[in-house]
Specification:
Enolase-like, domain 1, 17% strand, 6-stranded parallel sheet, 386 residues, TIM Barrel, alpha/beta
Length: 386
């Protein structure tokens, strides 16, 4: 079997653009991966083209060899663009291997340790601005079966926040906690934008509301800063969506900077690399909770990891998405009691509709973490998954 082509498909999805990568072979078996890289899509396409030049004509089943060759021969190693391109291609190769052998990818990674995985939802708060509005949105989510929810209550704050801004954020957390009761887990997102003092201050204010974690309290550039917050935080800390490969994670593990790690299958190196990172985290007794707010292919890949990783903790998923998400792939998600079932179809268990992708072409979007626009109302054509 030989690779005959590698193509990319960029699909507007309101908040960003999904970027899918498809690898074709001379035996008619193709595989799909995802490299959704918010707001850097054009650079990403160029990086995939470089990998295409290497991969065409080679055996797609030699996954470890190709990953090593692409990574080794990248003189400027690491970083979001290269690693996202490599991640997507690598995921697609696993998809091909699973289809070739007629088994789901999790079987190739050691087999199941679970049939379903607990989920937490992102995006449940769309349209909310005031604490009471967040509370109402939270109640609606719980009625749909949600048992864990994440959001960023910090508005436009960056590095520091005033007493009023902090109180507004805590009022929001308090309102949601009161609305959902003690049995629903709350996960508080920081989006990596506070300094050490603010991160510690926020963590201490969050303690009475018993969050499952406080996510990415400081920018990802300094693990020492993350460590200082964790050492003084009374609540668990999660981090890692902007770290790449086992090599960057090694320092996080050695310094014990977080309680939960969040590598992203679309960015950190793909399925094989996340399997290795998850195994390393297991040795440190850390929760393995991959970052996963992207599209249907990344979700399918992360579900394969959830199936075979003993220390997999909880899976992020979007609460709702553009209605045409169901046109782009044949994604079939089964939810029950706050869990999602692991699919058993060969490969990733998902196929991409190329014609549907073409109906929703690339549109430029901007980062909204520091604009206070994270709670923007979605388009009318929104579909809930619960």
């Amino acid at each position: 079997m030989k690779v005959t082509d590698v193509k990319t498909f960029v699909v507007d999805c309101f908040r960003t653009n999904w970027v899918f990568v498809k690898v074709y072979t001379d035996e008619g078996i193709d595989g799909v991966g995802e490299a959704t890289l918010e707001y850097k899509e054009k650079a990403l396409l160029g990086a995939v083209e470089h990998i295409r030049e290497y991969l065409v004509g080679k055996n797609p089943l030699e996954i470890e060899n190709h990953w090593h060759a692409v990574y080794r021969d990248a003189y400027w190693r690491g970083g979001a663009v290269l690693m996202s391109a490599l991640s997507a291609v690598e995921i697609a190769l696993w998809d091909i291997l699973g289809k070739f052998l007629g088994v789901p990818v999790y079987q190739l990674l050691g087999g199941k340790v679970r049939d379903r995985v607990r989920i937490y939802v992102n995006g449940w708060f769309s349209g909310a601005k005031m604490p009471e509005e967040f509370a109402q949105k939270a109640r609606e989510a719980v009625k749909r079966g949600v048992t864990a929810m994440k959001w960023d209550p910090f508005g436009k704050s960056y590095l520091e926040l005033s007493g009023r801004e902090l109180q507004t954020a805590i009022d929001c957390v308090a309102a949601v906690r009161e609305a959902v009761g003690p049995e629903v887990d709350l996960l508080i997102e920081g989006h990596g934008r506070f300094n050490i003092a603010a991160g510690i201050r926020i963590a201490k204010e969050l303690e009475p509301y018993k969050p499952m974690w406080f996510e990415e309290p400081v920018p990802p550039d300094s693990l020492d800063a993350l460590l200082e917050v964790r050492e003084k935080s009374p609540v668990p800390i999660s981090a890692g969506e902007r770290l790449y490969t086992r090599y960057e994670y090694r320092e996080l593990f050695e310094k014990r900077c977080a309680d939960y790690i969040q590598p992203d299958v679309s960015h950190a190196g793909g399925l094989g690399e996340l399997r290795k990172i998850g195994a390393m985290s297991e040795a440190y007794y850390l929760g393995f909770a991959p970052h996963n707010p992207s599209g249907p292919v990344a979700n399918a890949a992360t579900l394969q990891l959830a199936a075979c990783s003993p220390n997999f903790s909880i899976l992020e998923i979007m609460y709702s998405d553009v209605a045409y998400r169901r046109e782009i792939t044949d994604e079939k998600l089964e939810y029950e009691d706050g869990y999602i079932r692991i699919p058993d179809r060969p490969g990733l268990g998902i196929t991409l509709d190329e014609e549907a992708c073409a109906r929703y072409p690339y549109r430029p979007h901007t980062l909204r973490h520091y604009t206070g626009a994270l709670t923007d109302i979605r388009p009318a054509e929104t579909e809930f998954y619960f």
